[in-house]
Amino acid sequence: MLLLVDLDGVVYRQTETVPGVPSVLTARAAAGDDVVYVTNNATAYHTDYQPRLAAHGAPIGPDRVITSARASAQWIREQMPAVTRVLAVGASGLDRELREAGFDVVTVGGWAAAGHPDAVVVGLDPQMSYLRIAAAADCVRAGAAFIATNRDPMFPTETGFRPGAGAVVAAVATASRTEPRVVIGKPGPYLLEVGARSVGADLHTAVMIGDSMSDIAAGKAVGARTVLILTGVTTKAMADALADDQRPTRIAADAAELEVALRELAAAI
């Protein structure tokens, strides 16, 4: 069974481990399940997650983390082969993923100063400033393709919620009066498709485990079964209020209920 697992709010909340979840995933991996992490977070390079996940006690191997930054670089390479220069609005992980994919990456300046970039890729940018928004909007207005890594409005931390990439994307969209050409991350299907391809697995036998409705929507979009775990952005009251067509296959309040849900879903294959 392929387990597609979100990170923030599922495995950890920044430095805090979500109790029991890494142990459940480790047991599933030992039983033969493929565990692939699919995260909308575009701030870090994908291999940087390996020591972090190991420190939380989660199972991790080579090429088992698909970030929206990594998937964005891959999507542009597949769908827009003429793109060579990219203005990156985000953290260092986004820059590195784009460079590794072969793009000439610039991070400052407007349309002329940045060398007339072919695309603007926007993710979570902890160093966001007025001038960075202005530069991105200038390039989009001049004709650069606007690519959003994701539109998550917020993400959970151990002390509360923080603005997500969606806040940065909204600023650029407002300033440029242009909506993104594509949003790579969840709730779209592409991130999960890349995750399944990375291990040669069939999405129709997969289980998407997430803490948000964007995770569940992405799972539904690719025909996977879904588990909503209430350890991140979704509360029990929110889950109880879901319409029938939005409801996940299973809802787990914590790691113990997640373990039961995965055991039942594995038996149903």
CATH architecture heading of the largest domain: 3-Layer(aba) Sandwich
The class by helix and strand makeup works out as alpha/beta
Estimate percent helicity. Answer: 25-40%
- In the residues, how many domains can be counted? 2
* SSE series: EEEHEHEHEHEEHEEEHEHEHEHEH
Task: State which percent range the strand residues make up.
Answer: 15-25%
* Strand arrangement across the biggest beta sheet: 5-4-1-13-14-15
The CATH homologous superfamily of the largest domain is named HAD superfamily/HAD-like
N- and C-termini, Cα separation: 8 Å
Uncertain runs: none
Q: In total, how many beta strands?
A: 15
Mean pLDDT: 95
Give structural notes.
The protein has helices spanning 21-30, 49-55, 68-79, 92-100, 130-141, 165-176, 190-199, 213-221, 236-240, 255-267; strands at 2-5, 12-13, 16-17, 34-39, 65-67, 85-89, 104-106, 119-122, 145-148, 154-157, 160-163, 182-183, 206-210, 225-229, 250-252. It has 2 domains: 2-40 and 186-267, Rossmann fold (3-Layer(aba) Sandwich); 81-183, Rossmann fold (3-Layer(aba) Sandwich). With 269 residues, it is α/β, with parallel strands linked by helices. Helix 8 (213-221) links the parallel strand 13 and strand 14. It has a 6-stranded parallel β-sheet, with helices on both faces. Strands 7-6-8-9-12 form a 5-stranded parallel β-sheet, with helices on both faces. It has a two-stranded antiparallel sheet with strand order 2-3. The protein starts with a strand and ends with a helix.
